[in-house]
């Protein structure tokens, strides 16, 4: 059963200790400045992650994993998240999916951060070389929608996030203008009517997608208000 509205967790800012643990040189830097700087680097960092190759894991999670790096254009991944679903039946083998990540991205956006072991990854000399990264187990309420949230952490592109969840593009004012203005509320009603009449058969699946990504954001206690403010209108 889908809720009529999405309950947003109470705001909690990232702790200074969390940032210091992964990037001591940024300990006294304003959090918003850190996030803005990371957003500028996000696409290049994602490109590096897209070129990471890792062998599938066996039944036991290793503490470290050797991966192949095919792109040297930005910072190397620092950890490998081993993400598993929260709900699984006793007869079903738990599925674990690997996601390379940069610790500073998670540390600067997620309050409920899993414990990240120390990582001192040096860039390899050439593409195609191996590096070893610590493996970090992480539970996700909706594993299949973790990639969308992870990508958003790097890019802050709410338009791309919505495009991955909705059957057609959302009008820009819905996520750029004042959400309680009369013009936006009127436009939202028009867009809702369009979704209901044009995509009635698939609407439940898309509503479930929005709800699933929301639950992932709440589980990590995502500290960026964009993901909450801009998803809320599309959940009702």
Explain how this protein is built.
This protein is of the alpha+beta class and 236 residues long. It has helices at residues 16-22, 31-50, 103-107, 146-155, 158-163, 173-176, 182-198, 203-220, 225-231, and strands at 52-54, 64-69, 79-85, 96-101, 129-140. Strands 1-2-5-3-4 form a five-stranded mixed beta sheet. α2 (31-50) packs across α4 (146-155). It is globular and about 55 Å long.
What are the defining features of this structure?
9 helices, 5-stranded mixed beta sheet, 14% strand, globular
Question: Strand order of the main beta sheet, please?
Answer: 1-2-5-3-4
Count the helices. How many? 9
Unreliable residue runs: none
Instruction: Output the radius of gyration.
Output: 19 Å
The largest sheet is: 5 strands, mixed
Structural class: alpha+beta
What is the string of helix and strand elements? HHEEEEHEHHHHHH
How far apart lie the N and C ends?
A: 13 Å
What characteristic shape results from the CA principal axes?
Answer: globular
Topology:
Layout lengths: L15 H7 L8 H20 L1 E3 L9 E6 L9 E7 L10 E6 L1 H5 L21 E12 L5 H10 L2 H6 L9 H4 L5 H17 L4 H18 L4 H7 L5
